[in-house]
Amino acid sequence: MEAASLSPTTPGTALLWARETCSGSPASVLPGREPPYSVFTVLVVTLLVLLIMATFLWNLLVLVTILRVPAFHRVPHNLVASTAVSDVLVAAVVMPLSLTRELSAGRRWQLGRSLCHVWICFDVLCCTASIWNVAAIALDRYWTITRHLHYTLRTRRRASALMIALTWALSALIALAPLLFGWGEVYDARLQRCQVSQEPSYAIFSTCGAFYLPLGVVLFVYWKIYKAAKVRFGRRRRAVLPLPATAEVKEAPHQAEMVFTARCPATVTIQASADSWREQKEKRAAMMVGILIGVFVLCWIPFFVTELISPLCACSLPPIWKSVFLWLGYSNSFFNPLIYTAFNKNYNNAFKGLFTRQR
User: Fold this and answer.
1) d(CA 29, CA 92)
2) How buried is 127 (Cβ within 10 angstroms: 0-12 exposed, 13-18 middle, 19+ buried)?
3) At what angle do helices 319-330 and 255-313 cross, to 10 degrees?
4) Within a 10 A sphere around the Cβ of 358, how many other Cβ atoms?
5) Are 81 and 103 in contact, with CB atoms under 8 Å apart?
6) Phi, psi of 73 (to 5 degrees)
7) DSSP H/E element including 193
8) What angle is formed at CA 266 by the lines to CA 262 and CA 269, rounded to 5 degrees?
9) Could you write out the DSSP letters of every residue in 225-280?
10) Long-range contacts of range 70-74, CB-CB < 8 Å, 24 or more positions apart?
11) Which residues, listed in sequence order, are joined to residue 187 by a DSSP beta bridge?
12) Of 200, 197, 148, 154, whose CA–CA distance to 177 is shortest?
């Protein structure tokens, strides 16, 4: 998952960068010229460093909370933990090396072949796993709403464990395919270039397996969630509304009927409150999945569209746009834990408990 460097933005530095690219040797900065990095570039790099730190710390906090709080040792928190692991690795390994490459002149990779392979493998592995974990969370929510009677806790544990195993296995296959099967080259020592294999067949395989297939899954699943939730909540309202009317009609002086009349509103109230609580919980969960999917699509679709089209048509976007699309995709690892915690009060209470204990 390759990007272009943050090239200088001023005319003078752009000229130096172009001269360096054409001649193959670094251009010397003449007296009176502007420094190689403009104020805008320094600002952008500072924001990217803050993004890396925030992504790492927030996902690590979610992961530590799940590990330390016994109530979180169940579904769907193991799916959230799997997502947090992939996002922590993105922030700890992928994003710093990507930033180092962004800052090098002419997008050159100066860290050697071995570290290039490590970076590319972790980039594809962790980003793909993060995307498929979003699809797994959506599937778990779909089965919870549509099969709530048969989708027991034991079944959920088995399904979630299987989904996590398949997620990481598929991600590893996509990441290691160029190394295992010689499917294109990721490192060029002569040009000092390190990038995801540009072989057209691999581009189709990797983008479909890492993005387009899970995108189809999450969009179809959320459409089914919306339809199932709408039908289910409509049935509940129709089932609850006639009950108070029946209780008001049956008014008689007999003692037995008076007892029934006194108990019926209480039963209706308990049933209505229980259904209302469950309905609000499921609506909140469905909204969380919807926002999670929406942010995932907005963050990754620009990058994967260009990643698929570029090798097929032998064309390329301007370097600055490649960088923007890549880091927009990386930012999805920052938004994921924010969305989980914003729609789950248990996480907020757990965070407060952890900090209170530390004090």
Assistant:
1) 34
2) buried
3) 150
4) 6
5) no
6) -85, 55
7) strand 193-194
8) 145
9) HHHHHHHHHHHHHHHHTHHHHHHHH---S-HHHHHHHHHHHHHHHHHHHHHHHHHH
10) 71/346, 72/346, 72/350, 74/153, 74/157
11) 194
12) 197
CB proximity list for 112: less than 8 A, separation 6 or greater: none
Structure tokens at 20: 């360096």
**Which carries the bigger pLDDT value, residue 138 or residue 34?**
138
User: 193: which strand partners?
Assistant: 188
Task: Identify the CA nearest to 336 among candidates 81, 77, 83, 73.
Answer: 83
**Residue 83 pLDDT > 80:** yes
Q: Are 333 and 295 in contact (CB under 8 A)?
A: no
Q: What are phi and psi of 187, to 5 degrees?
A: -130, 135
CB of 61 closer than 8 Å to CB of 81: no
pLDDT band, residue 173 (cuts 50/70/90): very high
The 10s digit of each residue's pLDDT in 114-130 is 898 899 999 999 999 99
Average pLDDT, the chain: 77
